[in-house]
């Protein structure tokens, strides 16, 4: 109380006025985050629609086209259906971890959208690249907790697969990102997106290709969707989830795909018009959509590979190649 009185006497403001001033100060940040997350959720909804449409065309069949105009309200109809269904759970599950895991996975994925590098930010994260690595590495724990808490052998096998493959490409993602940051000479994602005018994706094509393949495994997408192998594990780590809780896992997975596509553009692609900044946001969005479309294209094209092939590919193929590239890059950067 004495400290509060000293502060009031020093500032000369009533505590109520101080609280109002504090609210006014944080209001722009709050509005910015709310708009960012709402737009991210809308992007996720329509990305699922685009995926279903594209898969329909790839497989010579019609996609969703019954709800509304050419199926545009389909994502909202699916969301209403999932969140209004009765929530039934097996009796042998571990109750608290079973519910916490999907919620935590969605929170961690949405936390990554805090580093969205648009050109009118309300908050700056100076260590955006490190923030991405720290938050994305925690996400594997949600998959493991979801599989373990289900008390199902199929769910547990899917969770163990996810953990094992994460260990396989964990170091590789860090090494690839390290090379991109060395070339950009920044760890602030906003500054990288503004200042980077060189297309690293063309300078280091093997590195960009390895990054894309690793991201397929990171997001549990075909041909590396071992944690959700329907033909082997019924449905993988989420076999016991249904209705609204399953929708949280679904949203987190597609939000992760979009943010990975966005960061791939930032780290490996330069800005088309670095002088005219207001067009750079549009260019960033277009490139992100193109990379996100590749995820759908790969899903429609590639079959799931064998699990041991992924382990051999990451340990015996990608790791030596990445170490060789970083040994070459660092001396070249020091000489420049």
Detail the poorly predicted runs: 1-8, 273-279
User: Helix segment count?
Assistant: 13
Radius of gyration: 22 Å
Work out the number of β strands: 0
Secondary-structure element string: HHHHHHHHHHHHH
Please, how many domains? 2
Tell me what the structure shows.
It is a single chain. The chain contains 13 helices and no strands. With 336 residues, the protein is mainly alpha-helical. The protein has 2 domains: 1-84; 86-335, no CATH class. Helix 2 crosses helix 12 (280-301), helix 4 (95-111) packs parallel to helix 11 and helix 6 (153-184) packs antiparallel against helix 9. The longest helix is centred in the first third of the chain and has 44 residues, at 15-58. Mean pLDDT is 78; it is low at 1-8 and 273-279.
Write the layout of secondary structure elements.
Elements (H helix, E strand, L loop, with lengths): L1 H10 L3 H44 L15 H11 L10 H17 L16 H22 L3 H32 L4 H7 L4 H4 L1 H14 L11 H4 L9 H26 L11 H22 L5 H29 L1
Helix pairs in contact: 2-11, 2-12, 3-11, 4-5, 4-11, 5-6, 6-9, 6-13, 9-11, 11-12
């Amino acid at each position: 109380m004495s400290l509060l009185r000293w502060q009031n006497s020093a500032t000369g403001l009533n505590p109520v006025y101080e609280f109002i001033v504090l609210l006014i100060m944080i209001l722009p940040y709050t509005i910015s985050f709310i708009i960012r997350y709402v737009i991210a959720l809308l992007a996720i909804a329509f990305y699922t629609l685009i995926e279903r449409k594209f898969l329909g065309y790839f497989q010579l069949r019609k996609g969703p086209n019954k709800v509304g105009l050419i199926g545009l309200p389909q994502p909202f109809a699916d969301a209403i259906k999932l969140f209004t269904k009765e929530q039934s759970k097996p009796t042998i599950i571990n109750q608290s971890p079973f519910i916490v895991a999907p919620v935590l996975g969605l929170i961690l994925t949405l936390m990554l959208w805090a580093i969205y590098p648009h050109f009118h930010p309300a908050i700056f994260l100076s260590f955006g690249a490190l923030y991405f690595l720290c938050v994305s590495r925690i996400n594997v724990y949600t998959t493991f907790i979801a599989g373990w808490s289900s008390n199902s052998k199929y769910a547990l096998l899917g969770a163990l697969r996810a953990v094992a493959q994460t260990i396989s490409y964990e170091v590789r993602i860090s090494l690839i990102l390290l090379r991109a940051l060395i070339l950009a000479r920044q760890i602030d994602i906003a500054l990288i997106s503004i200042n980077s005018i060189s297309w690293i994706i063309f300078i280091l094509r093997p590195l960009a290709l390895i990054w894309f393949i690793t991201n397929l495994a990171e997001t549990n997408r075909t041909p590396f969707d071992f944690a959700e192998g329907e033909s082997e594990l019924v449905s993988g780590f989420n076999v016991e989830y249904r209705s609204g809780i399953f929708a949280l896992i679904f949203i987190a997975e597609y939000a992760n795909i979009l943010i990975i596509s966005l960061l791939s553009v930032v780290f490996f692609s330069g800005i088309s018009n670095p002088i005219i900044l207001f067009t750079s946001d549009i260019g960033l969005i277009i490139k992100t959509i193109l990379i996100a479309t590749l995820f759908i294209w790969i899903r429609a094209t590639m079959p799931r590979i064998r699990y041991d092939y992924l382990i051999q590919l990451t340990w015996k193929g990608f790791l030596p190649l990445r170490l060789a590239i970083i040994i070459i890059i660092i001396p070249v950067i020091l000489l420049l």
